Every structure is written in structure tokens, then in C-alpha cells.
Structure prediction request, 106 residues.
Amino acid sequence: LQQQAQREQEISAQLLVLQQQSAAERTEFTRQHNEQLQALQRQREEHEWLTGERLDALNQELQHVQAESAVRERSSVEQLESVQREMTTLLQQQAQREQEISAQLL
Prediction:
């Protein structure tokens, strides 16, 4: 009976040790899990911030390209109008010369 009581005490002591170890392991697991969650949250926030920064940079670049395109388009239109005016002037001069030549021939 005494041996059985002693054996039960040993088993109870071992069980207590196992319960304490299990509680310590659960606490450590929870701590590590929380650290991982926090790290992932920080990474997500950083990614969102970087994505926002990148979008801002791309929008600025797009606006710059659009502005340059508008300037080039205006320049092309101005050049085209200038060439058209020059051609109109040359055609008028040619028509006038043809009239003068026709008048001289008559």
C-alpha cells in the first residue's frame, strides 16, 4: 500500500511536471505565433505603403509623359500650320506668275 501511494505520488509529480512543461510550451508557442503575426502585419503595412508610394510615382510619371505629349502635339500642329501657310503663299505666288505670264502672252 505504501509502495502504491509512493508510486501515485511519483506519477502525480511527473504529471505536474508534464503539465507545467505543456503550459510553458503553449505559452512559448503563443508568443512565437504572436510575433509572426506582428511581423506579417508590419510587412503588409510596409507593402501597402510601398505600393502607395509606387502608385504616386507612376501617376507623376504619367502626368509628366502626358504633358510632354501635349507639348509635342502642339508643336507638330504649329509646324503643320506653318507649312500649310507657306504652301498657300507659294501657290498664290505661282498663280499670280501664271496670270502675269498669260497676260504677257496675250
